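EI: anyone free to look at a 244-residue chain?
SC: sure, send it
EI:
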Amino acid sequence: MIIAYAKSDIGKAREMNQDAYYISDSLSEVKLYLLADGMGGYKGGEIASGLAIKCARSYIENNFKEIPKDRESLIQLVASSMEYANMVVYEKSKEDKELEGMGTTLEVCLIYNNKVYIGHIGDSRIYRIRKDFIRKLTQDHSYVQKLVKDGTITKEEAENHPKKNMLMKALGCNAFVEPDVSVKGFLRDDILLLASDGLTNMVKQEDIFNIAKGNIEKAPIKLVELANENGGLDNITVVVIKNI
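SC: here you go
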């Protein structure tokens, strides 16, 4: 059985919460968990993240029954849901001058048969906790991550880099998008954690691990509180999922 809890908070420095998330009902046939962190002036970010969640969710829920449940088909379903969401957000940004240039990160977790089918674009993150280890399952699509990968700067230097928030890839900014899609095991007692950068920029990975390993229901609330205590410079959203 899969249980999930989530919390989203405006933080201490922003005027609006541009994050959005969705967690499916524990009795639902489609075990789907989504998180998006929008960007764009006026209401752009809020609209982009909300639309991305709505479109990816409806695409997966409408097509899940029809497709074969093999690895390739489920990977394709996740990728297509993100491509569809991208198209809708991109078209919307073209309709309204005030929404020009809006975009969003998007994390998709579709759980089926002790596996999680992951779709990722942007710098929100997905972690998996298994026994005493926490592992980041996504690579940030950020300028700073590229510098780390190229060996130009260290991971430590990346933490406080002035261009930390600059994204190389986001959903809704271009007509076409190539999300990262992967499949990971999700075994009994494993925990998945989806978070916007409002959490990961404010809370250390070991604190995320220790809190998520505790009371699963209270974990999102405690993590949001800690991010706010540490400055709360951005919107904070956390989704915690456990296979029990």
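EI: Residues 2-133+169-240 form a domain with the Phosphatase 2c; domain 1 fold (CATH 3.60.40.10).
SC: 👍
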